[in-house]
């Protein structure tokens, strides 16, 4: 991210509340965003005020690409395309096309809400997608799925991720302990955060395979070589020294994980939470092609993740 505070779109006038057991959540029609998630009286993500602009893409669904496209330009199946640059200081197209949209309500009950959107076809992305997000609360936390269906006649490049900022507890982020089941990370250029090479975490400050304090380490990188359990799930765990914590799980559809320690310079609040973003592809995948999904006409792609109190 940048040192500026980014505000996403217009205010979020419409939202839907859900609850189950000790969990409550609020989801906004704008961006299909998870505005708030609580366990009892404790926030599990960094919230933003009801009806407000969305700061720093908190809780949004990033699609049809996660992270960034360099210069907003890419080639696909022999044709060149250009999408709007919305990260001016780095000259990139950030977090896709659907975060400024108001998503339509598909269903809503006490414990779940389902929203959909269909981004307009443009010269830069001339494909017809229908994207559906469902948030469902249970006794064990939040479960979320995002499905994209290609309704058009052309193969579409596609990727997706959620964008929550996790809260482990009341202590400063430096004191939180982090566990990330990833054996490699993507080294990026310091000025634009664009991919350079994948490196192993052995001996590096980004090795969080065993839980340890984040300390002063600044992270805004994608991780891969993720270890999934026998059920096909991977988990990030974050613990506060007071004894509270939060976890995030995701399925094998997301072979990449962006971690960001939300570092900012004054006057903006620094290190408010830990962004944890399971991604189906790495940054600038529209150019590299790495793990880029080719969504064929009539096909559907579904990814899932969840957040739970520890």
UniProtKB/TrEMBL annotation:
Pfam families: Aldose_epim
Annotated GO biological process: galactose catabolic process via UDP-galactose, Leloir pathway; glucose metabolic process
InterPro entries, per the entry: Aldose_1/G6P_1-epimerase, Gal_mutarotase_sf_dom, GH-type_carb-bd, YihR-like
Gene3D superfamilies for the chain: 2.70.98.10
GO molecular function annotations of the record: aldose 1-epimerase activity; carbohydrate binding
Matching CDD domains: Aldose_epim_Ec_YihR
SUPFAM superfamilies: Galactose mutarotase-like
Protein name (Swiss-Prot/TrEMBL): Aldose 1-epimerase
Organism listed in the record: Pseudarthrobacter equi
